[in-house]
Amino acid sequence: MGISVNPLVLHFLCISASVYDVSSLNSEGQTLLSLLRYWDVVPPIPSTWNASHSTPCFWDGVICETDFVVSLNLSDYNFSGQLGHEIGDLKHLRSIRAIASFSLQIGEVGVSSFGLQQAERLNKLTGTIPDCFGNMSKLIMLDLQSNRFHGTIPSSLQKVNTLTFLALSTNQFEGALPSSLCTLENLEDLLLSDNKFTGTIPDFFGNMSKLSVLDLRKNSLRRMITTNFPEGSRLSFLSLSDNQLEGPLPKSLLNCSSFKILNVTSCPTLLPGKLNDLFISLNLINY
Ligand SMILES: *[C@@H]1O[C@H](CO)[C@@H](O)[C@H](O)[C@H]1NC(C)=O
Ligand SMILES: *[C@@H]1O[C@H](CO)[C@@H](O)[C@H](O)[C@H]1NC(C)=O
Ligand SMILES: *[C@@H]1O[C@H](CO)[C@@H](O)[C@H](O)[C@H]1NC(C)=O
Ligand SMILES: *[C@@H]1O[C@H](CO)[C@@H](O)[C@H](O)[C@H]1NC(C)=O
Ligand SMILES: *[C@@H]1O[C@H](CO)[C@@H](O)[C@H](O)[C@H]1NC(C)=O
Ligand SMILES: *[C@@H]1O[C@H](CO)[C@@H](O)[C@H](O)[C@H]1NC(C)=O
Ligand SMILES: *[C@@H]1O[C@H](CO)[C@@H](O)[C@H](O)[C@H]1NC(C)=O
């Protein structure tokens, strides 16, 4: 679904409040009902989503804590359409789950107080990552794998330093790996495989003290890796396959005491002869 959004319209949507008058239903429930009009859902949302109730907390797929919607689990349904900017009115929402066919126009999810902490498997998305994401100050998990995003990683993501998991694999991102990633100091998993990233592997990865999984497979990264991993680095998985990198690998990888897997499959220029024998003797390498 490639719908382009005029920035002015987007701005308007970001600030407009939802007004959907439904008798005794509380505002959280009204917000949920107002989202329905964006969705084509198969099978239809069940009759438990009933406007005559006073709270949505007993509706299918809705999880509340003290009357506030904290989680939406829509994995039983197939969606297409847009998420709807009203979702931003669910100030306590931490997680949303939807199956792969959920088609979401994230360009509209732009409200400064957006409380979403998890956004998973939001496939069928296209375009660039909108700056709105930078305002999701509680986001801890952002999984946009297997969509059709292109362009560079937006610097607005650097504001989301609550992120522990960032997956942008299998899209068409390009350009150098931006230094803004370095400010994501809580990041543990960074999955960037299967894109068109170019340039070298940046030195700042050595400064991301919580980084444990780094997947850079299937990109166009080049040259020797000069990253210095200081003592105490938590890196445990590093996948470099299918790039044009050159050996030797930095010895400082040995500072990563929990290191388990180094994947250099299909890296013609990272041939065994050019690798440090130590890695081979430690049996860390997948060819
Ligand atoms: C909605 O809830 C009202 C009040 O509880 C009930 O009378 C009505 O039958 C419900 N509608 C549906 C479609 O379940
Ligand atoms: C979401 O709903 C699906 C289907 O009802 C269920 O299998 C799954 O465990 C639920 N996930 C969570 C996190 O509640
Ligand atoms: C969702 O759609 C897919 C493919 O169109 C179909 O295989 C699947 O059964 C659908 N799931 C539901 C819950 O309707
Ligand atoms: C993000 O929040 C700031 C301050 O609350 C606001 O000025 C800005 O317009 C918001 N940006 C987007 C893209 O929503
Ligand atoms: C990494 O951190 C060190 C010490 O804090 C600093 O001197 C260096 O400039 C940082 N490197 C990068 C690439 O951010
Ligand atoms: C381990 O890190 C320290 C800095 O913390 C560095 O001086 C040392 O050279 C590194 N070890 C290796 C084997 O590179
Ligand atoms: C290593 O890389 C190859 C080639 O990209 C891939 O097929 C394989 O699944 C990777 N293995 C691991 C453990 O990531």
From TrEMBL:
Domain of life from the UniProt record: Eukaryota
Boundaries of every Leucine-rich repeat-containing N-terminal plant-type domain copy: 25-64
Keyword Amino-acid biosynthesis: no
Membrane topology note: Single-pass type I membrane protein
Signal peptide residues on this chain, from the entry's feature table: 1-24
UniProt record similarity statement: Belongs to the RLP family.
UniProt-listed PANTHER family: OS04G0677200 PROTEIN (PTHR27004:SF392), RECEPTOR-LIKE PROTEIN 12 ISOFORM X1 (PTHR27004)
Protein's name in the database: OLC1v1007809C1
